[in-house]
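Troubleshooting: if your tokenizer reports a length mismatch, compare your output against this known-good record of 235 residues.
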Amino acid sequence: MLAIERLSVSYGGLAALRGVSLSVSEGQFVAIVGPNGAGKTTLFKAVSGTVRPTAGQILFEGRDLLAVPPPERAHLGIAHVPEGRQVFAAMTVLENLEMGAYSTRGRAEWQRNLDRILTLFPVLAERRRQLAGTLSGGEQQMLAIGRGIASAPRLLLLDEPSMGLAPTIADLIFDRITALHREDKVTLILVEQRVAEALESCDYGYVLETGRVVLEGPHRTLMADDRVRRAYLGI
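Known-good structure output:
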């Protein structure tokens, strides 16, 4: 479904990504882990179109994604849930979800997706007329994920969904993400600081360091790798 080949991105002459290649098959759950500053968020921004690569190629279902204007990528079925949630604070929960459904796919499947979002996150049903800015951090993260689901994505990019959340709330978020993949067959790419949970949940993972892929493999292989265990799992 997604093929990234030798992708490089620079900011002000400093390389954030250096020849990164990875692939994601339809229905797959892929995790991308690594230390802060490794280029994980930059990779997502290149796919969604908010940064322009200096070299390389991104193909989505065989189509050159770099030739597609960023606003059009959502209509192809790509949804990006950004780091830090970034909900529309002055809008209600329901209005935020409606904003997520602006794509052609989202409008066509709005009612079904809304029902699914409120099933995954029942608290959003209770808060549907509440301003998003008054929600707790965990509720805002649920809303941000729900807004992504509202676009009826074929590929959902989740950037650090557990950031700043209490462990119990982060566990709930992971459980819902796993259910979305298992039950709805949505293709997921997860960037996450909770490495153990990310690798345990995924089908396949990549370890990114200083803008390069340094390790990759099925989740069991990465969980058993001594370098991963020492650097990220504290074992």
